Amino acid sequence: MKGEQLIGKRVFCEDLDVGKVKQFIFDSEQWKITHLDLELTKETSELVLGVRKGGIRNLLSVSAIGEVGNTIKLKVSKGQLRIYLIPPKTQP
Q1: CA-CA distance, 27 to 41, in Å (whole number)?
Q2: CATH superfamily, with its number, for domain 3-87
Q3: Which residue in 45, 27, 46, 24 sits closest to 35, CA to CA?
Q4: Which helix (DSSP H) or strand (DSSP E) does residue 29 occupy?
Q5: Where do the domains of the chain lie?
Q6: Band of the pLDDT at 88, cuts 50, 70, 90?
Q7: Cα(29)–Cα(6) distance, rounded to whole angstroms?
Q8: Are strands 16-27 and 32-40 parallel, antiparallel or unpaired?
Q9: Fewer beta carbons under 10 A from the terminal one: N or C of the chain?
Q10: Alpha carbons 34 and 28: distance in angstroms, whole number
């Protein structure tokens, strides 16, 4: 799969719609995608960040990705999700 094909895909963690992929972060030294830039749903923002607002962007480590098809399914639990999300201003 090409990196551009990830853009626009919905990301799910268990039964939670985490958000939508807006971009991806590519590490040119390692030649691999390291993070997905997600626009979080209101539910995810509240669960993970304690903020009652949708549309917040965060970076998701690709190590959390389990399965990629029409959607992206994460292999981590909802309780672990905050470990894999970082604000874009602190991106690697």
Answers
A1: 26
A2: PRC-barrel domain (2.30.30.240)
A3: 24
A4: none
A5: 3-87
A6: low
A7: 21
A8: antiparallel
A9: N
A10: 10
What whole-number distance in Å separates Cα of residue 34 and Cα of residue 53? 26
d(CA 16, CA 80): 13
Token representation of residue 60:
């998701």
Lowest mean pLDDT among 37-41, 52-56, 68-72, 81-85: 52-56
Long-range (24+ apart) CB contacts under 8 A made by 50-56 are none
> Which pLDDT score is estimated for 91?
46
Structure-token pair, residue 50: 């304690």
Start-to-end C-alpha separation, the chain:
23
Tell me the two tokens of residue 10: 């919905």
Residues counted in the chain? 92
pLDDT tens track for 21-67: 999 998 999 999 999 999 999 999 999 888 888 889 999 999 999 99
